[in-house]
Amino acid sequence: MKGTSPNEVLLNKVCEEHLESVYNFCIYLIHNSRGLQDIAEESTQETFLEAKQQIEKLVQHPNIKGWLFQTAKNKVNRSFRYYYSKKKHELLTNEVIQYPISSIENELEINIDFDQLKVEVLKQLNAQEYELYCNYYLHKKSIDELSTIYDISRTAVTTRIYRLKKHIKEIANRVTI
């Protein structure tokens, strides 16, 4: 391997040694569901892409295999969150499509501009709530990542997310656009 850096050699070695075990771990995390195997494949690929991007830190890491497994777990969790929120949205959309739009509008007798509602709700969040909103919903950070960022327990992060959701619902119910 002439012209190959030590980091590339390490990355190749890590890939050769751990690719199959990381993939099997991802399969385990999705409970071997046949329809979700693409999540395991994508999560495995993303894990090793992350390893490539973080190779400088990984060189000094005391437990590379543990880092790979934790990263894979975070990638699978993030994919599940995306997958289920997408499925939930599709189900809601399918339910709405079953009824003519005009009958829905007549029943509700309101017309909501959701983009404007989102702007109004986000304006009313304090700085901490807005930061948590961005990290969890926009940047799709896991509970573990958030507990590290905020230096609090996973339970505290979960509680904060619950309170944030509740507060957003309260604001949305108050705001009329």
Main beta sheet strand tally, sense and closure: none
Number of strand segments = 0
Helix and strand element order: HHHHHHHHH
Mean pLDDT: 82
Q: How would you summarize what this structure contains?
A:
The protein is an all-alpha fold and 177 residues long.
Characterize the structure shown.
This protein is mostly helical. It has helices at residues 6-29, 37-53, 55-60, 64-97, 101-108, 114-123, 127-138, 143-150, 154-174. It has 2 domains: 6-89, no CATH class; 112-174, Orthogonal Bundle (Arc Repressor Mutant, subunit A), CATH 1.10.10. 79% of the residues lie in helices and 0% in strands. Helix 1 (6-29) runs antiparallel to helix 2 (37-53), helix 1 crosses helix 4 and helix 2 packs across helix 4 (64-97).
Observed structural traits:
9 helices; elongated; 0% strand; 177 residues; mainly alpha; Arc Repressor Mutant, subunit A
Task: Provide the fold topology.
Elements: H1 6-29, H2 37-53, H3 55-60, H4 64-97, H5 101-108, H6 114-123, H7 127-138, H8 143-150, H9 154-174
